[in-house]
Amino acid sequence: MLWASELPIRYSRKKMATRKDNPIPKTTRGKSANYLPTKSGAGMTAKGVAAYRKANPGSKLKTAVTGKVKAGSADAKRRKSFCARSAGQMANFPTAAADPNSRLRQARKRWKC
């Protein structure tokens, strides 16, 4: 663990406190929605991803791959990786796997897994 005095200059104490004290709100309704509701596919919106990247500089978070992609492209690899990871979640959480309206199942449907 790094102490505040050992941090690189680009990280100020104020910025670190701001990130920790002001998490991104998990809203699914209205103009400030950062997440999609379960019925709409259960994932982060583009606005939510932008808010996360603003709060976490250097982040490479992206939105879901929902469209048609060429085989072997970067997006196809991201989709394959997500589907593999979420398949493990299906094994670990059988109640979510059994419920067709769970956030896990809806997200997999949105990603076309």
Brief descriptors of the model:
45% helix, mainly alpha, 5 helices, 2 domains, 113 residues
How would you portray this structure in words?
It is a single chain. With 113 residues, this protein is mainly α. The protein has two domains: 12-63, no CATH class; 65-113, no CATH class. The protein is 45% helix and 0% strand. It has five helices and no strands. The model has no long low-confidence stretch (mean pLDDT 81).
Report the span from N to C terminus. 38 Å
**Overall 3D shape:** globular
Q: Helix content range of the residues, please?
A: 40-55%
Helix count, per DSSP?
Answer: 5
Order of helices and strands: HHHHH
**Domain unit count:** 2
Average pLDDT metric: 81
The helix-and-strand class reads mainly alpha
Strand content: under 5%
Main beta sheet strand tally, sense and closure: none
Gyration radius from CA atoms, angstroms? 17 Å
> How many strand elements?
0
Which residues sit in consecutive blocks of at least 5 with pLDDT less than 50? Answer: none
Annotate the secondary structure layout.
Elements: H1 13-21, H2 46-55, H3 74-92, H4 94-98, H5 103-110
